[in-house]
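The material for today's practical consists of a large collection of protein records. There is nothing in a record beyond a sequence line and a structure line. As an example, a complete record with its sequence and its C-alpha coordinates follows:
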Amino acid sequence: MFHRLLFLSLTALAFISALASGAILPENEVQALKDIAHTLGKKDWNFSVDPCSGEEGWAEIPEENAVTCNCSFSNGTVCHVFR
Protein backbone atom coordinates (compact mmCIF):
# COMPACT_ATOMS: atom_id res chain seq x y z
CA MET A 1 0.00 0.00 0.00
CA PHE A 2 2.80 2.43 0.89
CA HIS A 3 4.58 1.82 -2.43
CA ARG A 4 1.39 2.48 -4.37
CA LEU A 5 0.83 5.76 -2.53
CA LEU A 6 4.43 6.79 -3.08
CA PHE A 7 4.21 5.97 -6.78
CA LEU A 8 0.98 7.92 -7.19
CA SER A 9 2.40 10.89 -5.30
CA LEU A 10 5.55 11.00 -7.41
CA THR A 11 3.55 10.61 -10.61
CA ALA A 12 1.25 13.47 -9.62
CA LEU A 13 4.22 15.64 -8.70
CA ALA A 14 5.89 15.00 -12.06
CA PHE A 15 2.67 15.82 -13.90
CA ILE A 16 2.14 19.05 -11.96
CA SER A 17 5.77 20.05 -12.51
CA ALA A 18 5.39 19.54 -16.25
CA LEU A 19 2.28 21.70 -16.30
CA ALA A 20 3.85 24.40 -14.16
CA SER A 21 6.90 24.70 -16.38
CA GLY A 22 4.75 25.13 -19.49
CA ALA A 23 5.03 23.65 -22.91
CA ILE A 24 8.40 23.34 -24.55
CA LEU A 25 9.74 22.96 -28.06
CA PRO A 26 11.36 19.56 -28.76
CA GLU A 27 15.15 19.63 -29.02
CA ASN A 28 15.16 18.62 -32.70
CA GLU A 29 13.10 21.72 -33.55
CA VAL A 30 15.38 23.92 -31.43
CA GLN A 31 18.34 22.49 -33.36
CA ALA A 32 16.57 23.23 -36.66
CA LEU A 33 16.10 26.86 -35.55
CA LYS A 34 19.78 27.01 -34.58
CA ASP A 35 20.71 25.77 -38.05
CA ILE A 36 18.42 28.38 -39.65
CA ALA A 37 19.93 31.11 -37.46
CA HIS A 38 23.43 30.07 -38.51
CA THR A 39 22.47 30.04 -42.21
CA LEU A 40 20.81 33.46 -41.97
CA GLY A 41 23.54 34.94 -39.80
CA LYS A 42 21.05 35.66 -36.98
CA LYS A 43 22.88 36.65 -33.81
CA ASP A 44 19.92 37.93 -31.77
CA TRP A 45 17.94 34.69 -31.31
CA ASN A 46 18.15 33.82 -27.63
CA PHE A 47 18.47 30.03 -27.29
CA SER A 48 18.85 30.25 -23.51
CA VAL A 49 15.03 30.44 -23.37
CA ASP A 50 12.50 28.26 -25.15
CA PRO A 51 11.72 29.70 -28.61
CA CYS A 52 7.97 29.24 -28.00
CA SER A 53 8.10 31.21 -24.75
CA GLY A 54 7.73 34.63 -26.38
CA GLU A 55 10.50 35.81 -24.08
CA GLU A 56 13.58 37.85 -24.91
CA GLY A 57 14.86 37.13 -28.39
CA TRP A 58 11.60 35.51 -29.56
CA ALA A 59 9.04 38.27 -28.99
CA GLU A 60 6.62 39.58 -31.58
CA ILE A 61 8.68 42.76 -31.93
CA PRO A 62 10.95 42.86 -33.81
CA GLU A 63 8.72 40.79 -36.06
CA GLU A 64 11.60 39.13 -37.86
CA ASN A 65 12.39 37.29 -34.61
CA ALA A 66 8.85 36.11 -33.96
CA VAL A 67 8.18 32.37 -33.94
CA THR A 68 4.61 31.09 -34.00
CA CYS A 69 4.05 27.90 -32.05
CA ASN A 70 1.22 25.47 -31.48
CA CYS A 71 1.50 24.24 -27.88
CA SER A 72 -1.50 21.93 -27.78
CA PHE A 73 0.43 18.66 -28.14
CA SER A 74 0.76 16.06 -25.37
CA ASN A 75 -1.83 17.75 -23.16
CA GLY A 76 -0.22 21.16 -23.58
CA THR A 77 3.32 20.14 -22.64
CA VAL A 78 4.86 20.10 -26.13
CA CYS A 79 5.01 22.83 -28.78
CA HIS A 80 5.78 22.75 -32.48
CA VAL A 81 6.82 25.71 -34.63
CA PHE A 82 4.45 26.19 -37.51
CA ARG A 83 5.55 29.59 -38.79
Notes: The chain has one domain: 22-81. The radius of gyration is 17 Å.
